[in-house]
Each structure stands twice: as structure tokens, then as C-alpha cells.
Design brief:
The chain has helices at about 15-30, 90-100, 120-125; strands at about 1-5, 10-15, 45, 45-50, 55-65, 70-75, 80, 85, 105-115, 135-140. By secondary structure, it is an alpha+beta fold. It has one domain (about 1-30, about 50-140): 3-Layer(aba) Sandwich (Cytidine Deaminase, domain 2), CATH 3.40.140.10. The longest helix has 18 residues, at about 15-30. About 20% of the residues are buried. Pfam families: JAB (PF01398).
Length: about 140
């Protein structure tokens, strides 16, 4: 379990969250950029196969006890980058389902993949502003 602190808070990140985010990223990347038919060549018809790195978003859930934030799980968000819209009914439904199974867990914030902040990050952040001080996890 990873733990870090730079704001007086202690964060505990369970490995399941890392696995979930990696799986989410890998699934989206493989859907957008299917592997070439022949794996021996990096070029197809003389053109190098340049795969784009997708950006994926999701929520992190867990508990905060005093100055300790423990992130136990995560789930993906459905975000359409062409319209900058988040599927809010999907978010609400996932929140309700997790609350039934894990009544003491709360949505603590959201995650994104990538190495820098983008405009789409603000759309996601605004969508989860109903949370009290949502945290952000950037997975590189």
C-alpha cells in the first residue's frame, strides 16, 4: 500500500486502485489502437504505427478518518471528450451501487491518466465539486 504526505494529510492507496486504473487505461488504449496484424513490423505500408495515448477518468472511493485518507477502490467515469460531457446518471448509479455494498465508503475524488493537466480535467473536477474538497489522483 502506497502512502505519502505533503499537506499534513496521510494518504493510503490500496493496490487494487492501481490495478483498476491500469486496466481501465489498457482497455481504452487497446480499443482505440488495436494491435497490428503482424507484430514483427513497426511500420504498416511504410507508415510508422503511432499509437495515441488515451486519457481516462474515474472516481476513487474510500474513507477519511481525521487526517488519514484511505483509497480502497475506484471505478471509471464515462466522459465524452468531443462534447466535454460526463455521464452524470452513470456516476450517480455507480455511487448508489457502491453505497449499497460498502456503506462506509465515499467518493473521495477522481483520477486521470497523463502527465499534465488538460482542459478536460476541469470539466471532470467541476462535475465532482459536490464533494467536500475532492482529491485528484494523476496516474502516469
Amino acid at each position: 500500500m502506497a502512502s505519502s504526505s505533503s499537506s499534513g494529510l496521510t494518504f493510503k492507496l490500496h493496490p487494487l486502485v492501481i490495478v483498476n486504473i491500469s486496466d481501465h487505461y489498457t482497455r481504452v488504449k487497446s480499443q482505440l489502437n488495436p494491435p497490428p496484424l503482424t507484430s514483427t513490423s513497426a511500420t504498416v505500408n511504410g507508415v510508422e504505427n503511432q499509437q495515441q495515448a488515451p486519457r481516462v477518468y474515474g472516481c476513487v472511493i474510500g474513507v477519511q478518518r481525521g487526517r488519514t485518507v484511505e483509497i480502497f477502490n475506484s471505478f471509471e467515469l464515462l466522459y465524452d471528450p468531443s462534447t466535454h460531457s460526463l455521464d452524470r446518471p452513470f456516476l450517480k448509479k455507480k455511487q448508489e451501487l457502491y453505497k449499497k455494498v460498502f456503506p462506509h465508503f465515499y467518493i473521495l475524488g477522481w483520477y486521470s491518466t497523463g502527465s499534465d493537466a488538460q482542459e478536460s480535467d476541469m470539466h471532470i473536477h467541476r462535475a465532482v465539486c459536490f464533494l467536500n474538497h475532492p482529491l485528484t489522483v494523476i496516474y502516469r
